[in-house]
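Workshop exercise sheet. Pairs work together: one partner reads the sequence aloud, the other fills in the structure field after running the prediction. Swap roles for the next sheet.
Pair: D.N. / O.F.
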Amino acid sequence: MADEIFSTVLGELEENGLLRRTVSFEACDGRTLTRNGKQYLLFCSNDYLGLSHERRVKDAVIEAVAQYGFGSGGSRLIAGTRTPHERLESQLKDFLRTEAALLFSSGYCANSGIIPAIAGKGDAILADRLNHASLVDGCLLSRAEFLRYPHRDMAALEKLLKKTSSAKSRWIISDGLFSMDGDLAPLDDICGLAQKYGARVYLDDAHAFGVLGDGGRGTPAMFGVEGKIDLIVGTLGKAAGGMGAFAAGSKIAVDFLLNRARSFIFSTAMPPAVAAGNLKAVEILGECGAERADFLLTVNSFHTELKRLNFALKAEGYIIPLVLGNASDALNAARAFWDEGIYLQAVRPPAVPEGTARLRLTLTARQTDEDRGVMLGAIRRIIPPAL
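Structure field:
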């Protein structure tokens, strides 16, 4: 009986162009993928600075496997904490100029565990409507009053702050760099409203950490609001090229999460070798100012070339949505890029709102000028310039 229900739902998804399947590759070097002997240019990776293939990071992982073994053997509070975990947390808090940091096994784990720990009945959460799914789920799990304002609409946010004045506490929750639209939260305005109305700010800076802002410290550094964010969540699986996530903030806030965030307390710890690789990656992030600046220059150049093709861009960085509308159009466009040797994936509801299915193009430091030229040529042929 259950299989019949599953089959019906899967059939409906397929009929509507929403059925998902994984696509495996035999090889990846950070710039290209190989499948069935054919090589594809990779233009949908979050490995923005190419650190997943950095020799120093790989060597750090290999050395740590030899010293610590493969897995951690338990949760951090039982027997899972190793020296690389503590060193990585110290490195992260120094990098972000906060008092403390705490590791989680993924960004989804972090948001779905932290938000229910900090907000509950009697509290109010005010969240951007286009926040990542992990933030949405964390808000739903919290049992706090959950109100969403239109994307980046500060007038609407202020109305909600006035409306929720009787709440015990209020959290404004937002992405820093939005993962599907590539635009930025107006953090200066958000922090200003939080101060005016006595609210707290929770920022998911997963896609900006390591790349944007002075020293790669993300959107708080970009907007000059470092020290005004109560909790910052970031991931180590994007610009750092590894796996896992963290929360950073005051020492007392991090101690609170260590004791109350269920996804930290009840999860097996990040493998120590992964922590060691992440540690080396964060160290590199702190030293790669010139490389980061060069990458952002190539991003700006790519935007300029797209504008010459008459694309109306709303994206502000290395995440560039090519919005096509319905799911079938996005799937057909993705196949057309594959045929040209470029790997892009169609992003469809519920990952994005209905009617906004898209290709999510990402730029990385591993791509060459020639690669980007190939991509621009393919866009010219495949995507309508009215986007």
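Discussion prompt: The chain has 15 helices and 14 strands. What would you look at next?
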